[in-house]
Amino acid sequence: MIELRNVSKRFGDLVVLDGVNFTVGDGETVALLGPSGTGKSVLLKHIIGLIKPDRGQVIVDGLEVPRLRREQLRQLRYKIGYVFQNGALFDSDNVFENVRLGISDTSKYDDEEYARKAVARCIELVNLPPDVMEKFPAELSGGMRKRVGIARAIVGEPKDLLYDEPTSGLDPVNSDIIDGLVKRLDQELGVTSVMVTHDVRGAFRVADRLALLSNGRIVMEGTQEEFLASKDPKVREFLERDFQASTFAERAE
Amino acid sequence: MAPSSQRFDLRRVTGRAVLTGMAHVGRVSILIGEFFRGLREVKIWLPRAMDEAWNIGVGSLFIVLLVSSFAGAVTALQAGYQFQGNLPWFVVGTLVTQSIILELGPVLTGLILAGRIGARYAAEIGTMRVTEQIDALESLGRSPASHLLVPKVVAGLVMIPVLVVFANVIGVATGWLAASQVMPVTNADFAYGAQAFYRPFDAYYSLIKAFFFAASITIIPCYMGFNTGQGAEGVGRATTGAVVSSSVLILLLDTLLAKLLLHQ
User: Fold this and answer.
1) Is the pLDDT at A130 greater than 90, yes or no?
2) Per residue in A5-32, pLDDT tens?
3) Could you give the CA distance from residue A79 to residue A61 in angstroms, rounded to a whole number?
4) A21 CA to chain B: closest CA distance, Å?
5) Chain B, 117-156: which have a CB under 8 Å from a chain A CB?
6) Most exposed: A144, A151, B152, B217, by fewest CB within 10 Å?
7) Cα(A21)–Cα(A44) distance, integer angstroms
8) pTM attached to this predicted model
């Protein structure tokens, strides 16, 4: 279970999160929506302890993340897979070595045969051909890099998966492929997932529940139906970018 | 008249500079602590350090030898010009050997490598910072120190003193060659002059300087890289800052070590 209680964060004079309360239950997939620059990625980085809050609590599986000692934080991170916006693959390593770094167990990481099999299985899970393992990140397309990033996040068999804009910068066909992949992984691996996105259609396809972040606060949380039925101007303004107003009623039905 | 808020306030400027300096010292100290902590993960850093050592050693050998050979030749030619008719010719041998081993070999090598290695380290780590590769390492429960910092620093601490030894040998050799070709300095004169004032400590002093310069050339650029600001501009600033800061630190260390080790 992931829980943020009254979390605030500012960078200089800029208030990014202002008393955010956000909960994700075990096995649930929640899409965190919001326009660019509203602090969605900052919120996600709080969950894995890459950023510490100025105020409030971040609790993952009963552990308060900002208070964890170095080794405890490392152990927690082994249980969480993080998919970065642009893949964040290591330029100097090939795909195999990139994905292999996600194997958290040291003895398994050092076991060449286990590592080969585990990486190959994850590469197959994300619909990439086996020969991609010898390629370097610079030789891959944007969509392939994102899928390698997902493979790296799942190879350590995490309990939670955090996706930071997994479809941003992709064409609609590749976006659909990634959305389908996220959905399939959630079902097959049974993980708890948080997907940060500004792609409403993708969020509707993948998530059990949605949350909208605006001006540093969660302005609405609920199911797709509750979002479509919402009269909140911020919610409607955001959804109307992707859906024609006329389709709201149809979808709500 | 400028409004009071825009007036130059020496106390404020000084105070801010002191605080910024203290913050840098604090963060560099933390980074050095991370370096020692990262040393424990030998399996992670050793293979990477071997690659880095090869890059530093073989990649920099040509430019280091080129510069030191010119430095040796010019020192010999200028010494011959200055002392012509006033001092015996063997003094050229003394001057070339002492100048190269005590000063020019380590300092010129240090300054060249601050540009070559320091800029590369700052740009490489800075780019990894802005493209979230360092965040990715941390998110995987892995230490950026053992993957990035330790291999680079260890490789520098081992290879830069070796490059300085090469620079010293080639610098003295080209000085000898220039002196014997252009001036009436015999091989016996040069060899006598080189040995007349040479102390074994001189070679150690050269290596001690090289070791400290190596720390400056590797740790400062890594620090700048880890603390890179946003985007390409941030990487550019980190790279420039790394070269300037490590070069200035080399000159400061040069003076400090001369005082501490040669004038006790």
Assistant:
1) yes
2) 999 999 988 999 999 999 999 989 999 9
3) 10
4) 23
5) 128, 131-133, 135-142
6) A144
7) 13
8) 0.86
